[in-house]
Prior knowledge:
Two copies of one chain form a homodimer. Chain A is built from 16 helices and 17 strands. With 414 residues, chain A is α/β, with parallel strands linked by helices. In chain A, the strands form four sheets. In chain A, strands 2-1-3-8-7-6 form a six-stranded mixed beta sheet, sandwiched between helices. A five-stranded mixed beta sheet of chain A has the order 14-13-15-16-17, with helices on both faces. Strand 2 (35-42) of chain A pairs antiparallel with strand 2 (35-42) of chain B.
Amino acid sequence: MTAHILTIGDEILIGQIIDSNSAWMAEQLNLQGIRVTKIISISDTAEAIIKALDASFAETDLILITGGLGPTKDDITKKTLAQYYGTGMSFHEPSFERLSGMFARWGRATTAAHREQCFMPDNAVILTNKTGTAPGMWFDNEGKIAVSMPGVPYEMKYLMEHEVLPLIAKTFPGKPITHRTILTIGEGESRIAHRIQDIEEGLPEHIKLAYLPNLGQVRLRLSATGDNLAVLKEELEAQVALIRGQIPEFVFGYEKDTIENVVGQLLLKNRKSIATAESCTGGLVAHRITSIPGSSAYFEGSVVAYSYALKEKLLNVSPEILSTYGAVSEETVRAMLKGLLEKLGTDIGIAISGIAGPGGGTPEKPVGTIWIAVGNKNKTDTLKLQLGKSRSNNIKYTATKAMDMVRRFLLENV
Amino acid sequence: MTAHILTIGDEILIGQIIDSNSAWMAEQLNLQGIRVTKIISISDTAEAIIKALDASFAETDLILITGGLGPTKDDITKKTLAQYYGTGMSFHEPSFERLSGMFARWGRATTAAHREQCFMPDNAVILTNKTGTAPGMWFDNEGKIAVSMPGVPYEMKYLMEHEVLPLIAKTFPGKPITHRTILTIGEGESRIAHRIQDIEEGLPEHIKLAYLPNLGQVRLRLSATGDNLAVLKEELEAQVALIRGQIPEFVFGYEKDTIENVVGQLLLKNRKSIATAESCTGGLVAHRITSIPGSSAYFEGSVVAYSYALKEKLLNVSPEILSTYGAVSEETVRAMLKGLLEKLGTDIGIAISGIAGPGGGTPEKPVGTIWIAVGNKNKTDTLKLQLGKSRSNNIKYTATKAMDMVRRFLLENV
Lengths: 414, 414
């Protein structure tokens, strides 16, 4: 089973926005066993839309369309689809009731334009959009399916999850497919592949393994197809256990976990508080920790000390350590951590100092030299990184690495 | 003049990566007066590539292709293009010399696979890629142009800027086109449009204005086409001056400026130092400031104080203020700012406290209530924001707003 994704709108064609919708939709379809063979972005003209529909239906039975449903675009997608199918448009009372109710709650009245938005092609199954004003539409023309959704990402995602994907599963009941994703951190793709080579080579034909790497993290996605979903799930669980057994130190979570989330859960579970003392990461670690809702339960605060003076004043780092070893040294991050724990009184701390670049390097300490310390008042782990020349990548990679050090520290010492 | 963009590779079709290349390429082509009418992503099979080339050449004379040139993909794009044009492949000595030199500098020897990578279709003009191993290729078949580039974003960008865009300008010498971008912050798209309505309506036919909004910022891009580039540039300058004159308080820069950069330049110019005291933004403002290379010249440090206790301890906020007005109040951000300036000794400070959500709201102070204070020891500006329910958007928008308050403070008071 294949599908095409068609995005309608000039915003993508002039480079104003990046088409992130299609990647998300493609991933969801893949997870349901549907292979996307083409993604097409076209202009919002009737001619372009009709030509694209004809071309795609010559190659596939399923087209997912986003965009062109907003009021500023004159609803060109909806009208064009009605024209394409040679059908009339009728007023859709339930859509208008929902819209009126929504506006009433906001204390606003509906206008003629809103009534206009509720005229829908007669052959469309209307898909309720609880996140916006434009409903989705499902067209079934003798087994050739076109689905039209708004291009606003959260509206499209709502419709996909609640309406479109279930309808697709019902309409194209292929073999069951199921997935498990193992999240790893701290080792590269090729080294992980080497470590689990035997397991990968021993995978049965109906189980596939994909490596999805991203700046210090690698997701391992197992997909199984077969006849019996319960059996497939059991098989995948067994493979997950095998892989985890082979690389236990790198696995930090599953499915939609994030390192920030996992560390947050560990801190909550162990009732430990945390703080950060940051130099070259400039507050990014604190920002990552506090991006998690509810992080105030374990995050106390952070000191970003860029200058020598502030490292001394805010973190009690002695001038002797700074002058003897320099700001980028194991001794300094240890002293920063000690000062942080004393000053902020948390159970765990993170201290980071380094040269993010592009300037500031020396032959002895080139750009990308970064020290991290993670610990409590009894024990400290330190790590020296030797990264590249990109300031932005150095900062991001270091923040990720520091979060992983906290994870390991909590698992080993708490 | 139109073009199609064709991306080759399963990574996009399975949703593993988002196609950010195409948006960048489309923007560059648009800036050169070439309208992208279709962006297509296809699988890396010869059949799919050949069908896509035929379909696109039926609609346009220019196809930009990315992807399928890496060694892991068996160079399917290159072979397929040779097949498409019915041409042989020959060893390209200059490419091999460059490759060997590159590897020699890394202290590594070339392999047979590298020699293989230097066989190029006989009808291709080879475009030197100084950023990677795969050269670009330019095919001209009686005025129908196909350009093949690697999919690695920085390699593609290098080739576009140094080889492809100049060649396109030479091959399709349309009317001169030139652009100016005005960067605004602090006002929405529709309000700005209203303020400059007269100017926009008075624009001559050959000058276009585009609004490019993004979370608190709106870029205004003016594009002019005509016969005389020097005249066009003068005309645009005059329009820029008119627009700036209408909305002077919102214009913070031009072209590729960022608010972080502009604030950094203002601080440098006025020899002022800065620090931040952050609660709900959790260090993001400090991270934004320090994302700029060389920011250590003006950024001293930051205190992220999530808890009452740390607001008292690190920023000298009195318990009375916190208990009387609450952590999210004008009084508290003023006290945080005062404490910050005392403790860190910088010229300027930013203090932020708010409820980022999704939890923590009250009827009196719902989620999205955020206070910002910006000032020096003599004068303080404060602002109350009432934002929405998205934690991530609230944090990002607040950080941007705070940077803009610093910009205005520096312009008005320093």
